[in-house]
């Protein structure tokens, strides 16, 4: 019998990669998408899995308890991966209520559906390093105290604790993956790495003058999404449910990622000025290629994230392999190709 999995949020970066991984392992996958006026399947199209006979695309909204019950009843999965969320931190400040409903309550709906339908189903919750927020220790591990700094982080913390609570109360095999930032050519363009690689490709092709960013001093621990979805799967194959940090244990500023992306395109940048007056100048031509726009600053910032993935290494055998330089170049090259072909997602 083939294993069956539900992946919520298949139209997102991680949902697409995870579906690809599970299909390659022989699973039947129920991937959920939201009904909108124009559904966007570009990621699963890029991965070439849209027509896979073992992939079933199911209309679903996380905020609807009935929809969760129907999904779990009809798909009858062995494993559920809850990747759907309002996942953009910046937007969560403008839409705190919607973020709480989707990102927080949505996870509870799925846990309830599992408890009521079949408590043997294994559950993965997409938790996040944003729960550490104003960090209480460096590096951050599973037992580091949380201090979220955005409505998104607070909503995710609710879902994280609900997963642990259902594990302890109902013996549900619920795992919480505390994943640090992970990127790829399939990353949404509103997130900073992809915004940068897409803009650098456009600048290279003469389609854009300069890149505008917010806080370039923020530090993040960035890894490659394809390796992180494998970690999600490994968590649900373990003997015991647990919470796991997935991270690279290396942190860099946004500014450093900007430098790297321009370097991949053959530029050398020099940064001048401070904070909102900071600019990035092309050493060869003297042109300003990067400037700050206060519009992209957040009401409260997470300054520094760096994760310690020791538990995942020890208990799951999971380790990151791709360096940030390799990841940045891979993303830039994909964006250069897309922009040269006039495709832009
Ligand atoms: P994306 O933003 O790319 O994808 C989010 C998915 O959730 C999309 O498919 C989106 O659908 C779907 N979704 C949003 N609202 C609803 C809803 N109400 N009902 C059903 N589906 C909905 O996120 P990522 O792939 O980057 O991340 C996957 C998960 O991991 C998210 O939960 C995120 O918060 C979390 N995470 C991500 C990290 C990262 O660095 N990428 C790090 C740590 C955690 P639509 O396309 O219709 O908008
Ligand atoms: P993050 O990712 O908030 O860490 O959440 P994002 O790429 O949006 O921001 C990273 C850092 O870059 C700074 N920044 C900018 N960010 C964006 N988006 N746009 C800009 O122009 C810009 N300029 C500077 C931000 O202030 C921030 O410090 C991501 C999401 O995937 C979450 O869902 C996930 O939980 C976390 O990663 C781990």
What is the average of the pLDDT values?
97
- How many runs of DSSP E, i.e. beta strands? 15
Task: Give the radius of gyration.
Answer: 20 Å
Spatial shape: globular
Strand content: 15-25%
Low-confidence stretches: none
Percent of residues in helices comes to: 25-40%
Strand order of the largest sheet: 3-2-1-4-5-6-11
State the major sheet.
Answer: 7 strands, parallel
Q: Order of SSEs, N→C?
A: EHEHEHEHHEHEEHEEEHEEHEEEHH
Distance between the termini: 37 Å
Family: Belongs to the NAD(P)-dependent epimerase/dehydratase family. GDP-mannose 4,6-dehydratase subfamily.
Catalytic activity: GDP-alpha-D-mannose = GDP-4-dehydro-alpha-D-rhamnose + H2O
Protein name: GDP-mannose 4,6-dehydratase
Keywords: Lyase, NADP
Structure description:
With 345 residues, the protein is of the alpha/beta class. The protein is 40% helix and 18% strand. The protein has eleven helices and 15 strands. The strands form four sheets. Strands 3-2-1-4-5-6-11 form a seven-stranded parallel sheet, sandwiched between helices. A four-stranded mixed sheet has the order 8-15-14-13. Strand 14 and strand 15 form a beta hairpin. The longest helix has 22 residues, at 96-117. The model has no long low-confidence stretch (mean pLDDT 97). Bound molecules: NADPH dihydro-nicotinamide-adenine-dinucleotide phosphate and guanosine-5'-diphosphate-rhamnose. Guanosine-5'-diphosphate-rhamnose binds at residues 87, 89-90, 128-130, 180-181, 190-192, 195, 213-215, 218, 220, 254, 296, 298, 301-302. NADPH dihydro-nicotinamide-adenine-dinucleotide phosphate (NDP) is lined by residues 8-9, 11-15, 34, 36, 60-63, 83-87, 102, 126, 128, 179, 181-182, 188.
